[in-house]
Design goal:
rod-shaped; two-stranded antiparallel sheet; 13 helices; 9-stranded mixed β-sheet; 3 domains; 398 residues
């Protein structure tokens, strides 16, 4: 086995052992989902799967809305329905404000977190984020959660979003008149949650400054779960959770899903490492080290060499007369006209060839052939006949 092959096998064995060790360790370790999106698809500490399950446990129909906001208009009308938007991971663009506002005229809204700030401003409030100063909510119970943002009234009749001015246009919304505003939660920073009852339609809007109140960890460890379920219990027949802006839209491909899985699963990492090892082995096997080995030059034999080889074989089989006759017939096939190559007696042809010989050496070679064609020749006559045939051929060619 060559040294290069041994090195490749050794590297492959080491990689396989590393993959096996990694998978064994991963199978024994507790996997924690660190995805920070407050999505109902995520069951990790930062997700909001618990809110969906708890709402379903109350007997309320739940649905994940994964389409573009303009598709909201196609949903069947329901008088007791709530659309929940929890801190969208992707910002709500200016053109998307219009379908959300149109949908709010036929359903209630729950907006939470900094990501929903653009939509909150269309209802007269904005989110004041406190990045490094979290405080506890007041009046929620013994296990009060922490919040890092508050709601501040804008006191403006309209709001203009110009974030898509370069490619679309400005989007302007008018703050609707409110029949009542009921604070739901407060903290040392100010207002945390408020319920707004609209005066133009019989629907309400719930604004929450911090979407952390609806995360799985917060609902399990604090009294935030009591507050969250109190917003929907006995009030709604259906709750819609907006998931499009968390990256869970209906569009996608199997390839992207497979790649995403391979980056999170130890089996996927093992497959990537095996593919890398195979690629390296292919590269090492394809590269030639050193100069190219020259090919063996093979020169084709002349027709006379083939005749001599045939004569030698016949001589070994004690067919001396037949060998000499075969050489003469082969010479006739090369020198005679096409019409006479296989016709008539070759003895007569050989005698006629001697009569037309040009050089003394050619005449001597033809005379030798005439002598050797007589029956009863010794084995050495085959070699002499071959040399004579070659002399005749060379003289005629020259």
């Amino acid at each position: 086995m060559r040294p290069r092959t041994e090195v490749l096998l050794g590297l492959g064995a080491v990689c396989l052992l590393g993959v096996a060790a990694a998978m064994l360790g991963a199978s024994k370790a507790t996997k924690v989902d660190h995805d920070a999106r407050p999505s109902t698809f995520l069951a990790g500490p930062e997700g909001a799967r618990g809110l969906l399950e708890a709402t379903r446990g109350l007997g309320i129909e739940v649905r994940r809305f994964r389409q573009r906001p303009r598709e909201l208009a196609k949903l069947a009308d329901s008088s007791r329905r709530l659309l929940v938007i929890l801190n969208p991971s992707a910002s709500i663009s200016a053109p998307e404000l219009t379908p959300f506002l149109a949908f709010s005229k036929s359903t209630d809204l729950l907006l939470a977190g900094r990501g929903a700030d653009h939509l909150m401003r269309c209802f007269g409030y904005r989110v004041d984020q406190k990045l490094f100063d979290s405080v506890r909510v007041m009046g929620l119970g013994a296990k009060t959660p922490l919040v890092s943002a508050s709601l501040v009234a804008t006191h403006k009749a309209t709001y203009t979003d110009s974030s898509r001015l370069a490619d679309v246009a400005r989007t302007t919304c008018t703050v609707p008149a409110m029949q009542s505003a009921t604070p739901l939660l407060v903290s040392a920073h100010g207002l945390v949650a408020i319920r707004l009852e609209r005066a133009d339609v019989h629907h309400s809007v719930i604004l929450v400054s911090d979407a952390g109140l609806f995360r799985n960890r917060t609902m399990r460890e604090t009294d935030a779960g009591v507050f969250a379920l109190g917003l929907v219990a006995g009030k709604y027949d259906r709750v819609l959770f907006e998931e499009y802006h968390h990256g869970f839209g209906t569009a996608g491909s199997l390839a992207s899903a497979t790649i995403a899985w391979s980056r999170q699963s130890p089996w996927g990492w093992g497959a990537w490492q095996l593919a890398a090892v195979g690629l390296l082995a292919l590269l090492f096997g394809a590269v030639r080290f050193g100069p190219a080995i020259p090919g063996i030059i093979r020169v084709r034999r002349s027709p006379i060499e083939h005749v001599r080889a045939l004569a030698t074989a016949l001589s070994a089989a004690e067919g001396h007369d037949e060998a000499i006759a075969a050489m003469v017939r082969g010479l006739r096939r090369r020198l005679a006209p096409p019409a006479l190559r296989s016709r008539g007696d070759w003895h007569a042809w050989l005698a006629q060839l001697g009569a037309h010989a040009g050089s003394p050496k050619e005449r001597e070679a033809i005379a030798t052939l005439n002598q050797l064609t007589q029956p009863g020749q010794p084995p050495s006559s085959v070699l002499r006949a071959a040399n004579a045939v070659e002399d005749v051929w060379q003289n005629i060619q020259s």
